[in-house]
Amino acid sequence: MSMSDEERDEYPDGMVRLRNPNIELMDQDILYHLALGSGSHDLPVMFGDVKFVCMGGIPKRMEQFAFYIMDEIGHKLPSGTTLVDISQYSYRYSMYKVGPVLSISHGMGIPSIGILLHEVIKLMYHSKVRDPVFFRIGTCGGIGLEPGTVVISDEAVDGLLRPVLEQAHLGKLVQKPAKLDKKLARELLSLSSPDEPYDTVLGKTFCTDDFYEGQARIDGAFCSFSETDKMEFLNKLSKMGVSNIEMESLSFAALTHQAGIKSAVVCNTIVDRLKSDQVLASKEILEEWQLRPQKIVARYIKRYLSNKGRLSLENHGHGGGFYVKSPRRMKLVQQESETYD
């Protein structure tokens, strides 16, 4: 069930609501893959001031983004402290907090980001966060776009070109609408600069369950179609207004929409799929391209904080340590999360 505009209007306080009555019946809610828990950690103290949740695939990239956004918003950590990976005991995702910004790695693909989103949305709920804004910052394959182009998604579609996330629940297929905030997408586009040596565009995103055959590649271990078939399909996508291909936007759009959370996907293309299947750019060029979506998101965050008079956030909020409600429960949560499969 998705949250309608009318249902959102019932909650003028902006608090994140869960669509699961079972959570209220639990003694504590262990966020297993984040190594956090509602009974072990004081989550409102740790995360109550969060406004922006920024996600990307790779832990190192999101650590770098945390330091980047810290410089951009002028955040100063208390003397003698440094940023820490709050979820270091999970060995699955990395999470860094810079004042009102969370920087989190989501791994690769719909299953990985879906697990994370369930727990981060619950984290927002337990922390009593108001009106958070979620961003996915990543890389993608472009369709007819110069590598290095920034694509802001205005819609996500699945492998059958439907704007829904389809999952099997209790042996039955369930569809969740995958909707992104179009106003937020336009606002982000307005923050691009004509002076930049690359284009920033709005476009539809084709989200797949697979990197190879699912994305019409012919360079995997297996291939069930010809080069001609591939090009016909990619050209069909282009005519439909699809600008890029990646593996997370569908789940990101569907779950944030269901939670009533404003969200956007901003990616840079690293290959034009009409010309090549393989990424041929150097590591140095790829690293420069990956900064481009971060710049737009940082501009949005800076503008918001500036309007609120919250730039230069010296000693503001939680700097990345742990506020423990129950040392015994915290130890148990960490031990549970450390037991990786």
Automatic annotation (TrEMBL):
One of its GO terms (biological process) is nucleotide catabolic process. InterPro entries: Nucleoside_phosphorylase_d (IPR000845), Nucleoside_phosphorylase_sf (IPR035994), Uridine_phosphorylase_euk (IPR010059). Coiled coil: none annotated. Signal peptide: none annotated. It comes from the Eukaryota. Gene3D superfamilies: Nucleoside phosphorylase domain (3.40.50.1580). SUPFAM superfamilies: Purine and uridine phosphorylases. Residues 51-302 form the Nucleoside phosphorylase domain. Substrate binds at residues 215, 217. One of its GO terms (cellular component) is cytosol. Belongs to the PNP/UDP phosphorylase family. This is Nucleoside phosphorylase domain-containing protein.
